[in-house]
Amino acid sequence: MNNITIRQETPSDYPAVFELIKSAFENLEHSDKQEQFLVERLRKSKIFIPELSLVAEVNGEVVGYILLTEISILDNGQLSGNSLALAPVAVLDGYQGMGIGGKLILEAQKRAKDLGYESVILLGHEGYYPKFGYQKAELFDIYPPFEVPSENFMAIELSENTLKNIKGIVQYPVEFGI
After folding, report:
1. Which of 40, 131, 141, 162 would suit a FRET pair with 119, their CA atoms being 20 to 30 Å apart?
2. Residue ranges per domain, the chain?
3. How many Å apart are CA 175 and CA 177, to the nearest integer?
4. What is the pTM of this model?
């Protein structure tokens, strides 16, 4: 696939991104079908990082989206460290399987590292995200604040050993509704 452009999202992209996310998640079994509303809440929050809200375009059409937002990791109620949550990543049906999601993930990770962030945590498909270096978060002594199979809760260090001295339970901002 040629002519894939990944760029920072702008407000003029919001309607297309809303429909893209809605479409991408409407038939997924493990979705509450509310991801597009989560993105709207996150954009209005203090944890929103415009540089980490990215779209993928093909021939001028927005066909993919990814968002990384700030989260905290608490150890016995005390801040152990900060990280980023990857949620969501979405690609329009007709463009899935072409590597667009992977390009978005890798570009978002690169930009996050360039901005000084050290890690990313996600809840996702155990067969997909390890291709990009994600491992079970429990291997880093990091756990979700809810029940979920450990193979679906993953983390990646954007630089070597950045999670070495961080452990605990992820605290999602109120916008996640968790």
Report:
1. 40
2. 4-173
3. 5
4. 0.94
- DSSP codes joined into one string, 80-122: EEEEEEEEEEEE-GGGTTSSHHHHHHHHHHHHHHHTT--EEEE
pLDDT band at 166 (very low <50, low <70, confident <90, very high): very high
- φ, ψ of residue 8 in degrees (nearest 5): -65, 140
Q: How far apart are CA 170 and CA 86, in angstroms?
A: 13
The CATH code that applies to domain 4-173 is 3.40.630.30
Alpha carbon distance 49, 55 (integer Å) = 14
Kindly give, in sequence order, each residue whose CB lies less than 8 Å from that of residue 27, ignoring residues fewer than 6 positions away.
none
Q: Helix 14-25 crosses helix 35-43 at what angle (to 10 degrees)? A: 150
Closest CA to 177 of 97, 85, 63: 85
Residue 26 binned pLDDT confidence (cut-offs 50, 70, 90): confident
- What is the distance between the alpha carbons of residues 108 and 76, in angstroms, rounded to a whole number? 30
Q: Report cis status (omega within 30 of 0) of the bond before 149.
A: no
User: What are the angstrom distances between the C-alpha of 144 and each of 15, 55, 71, 119?
Assistant: 31, 27, 12, 15
Q: 100 with 63: CB under 8 angstroms?
A: yes
Tokens of residue 66, six digits: 């990814």
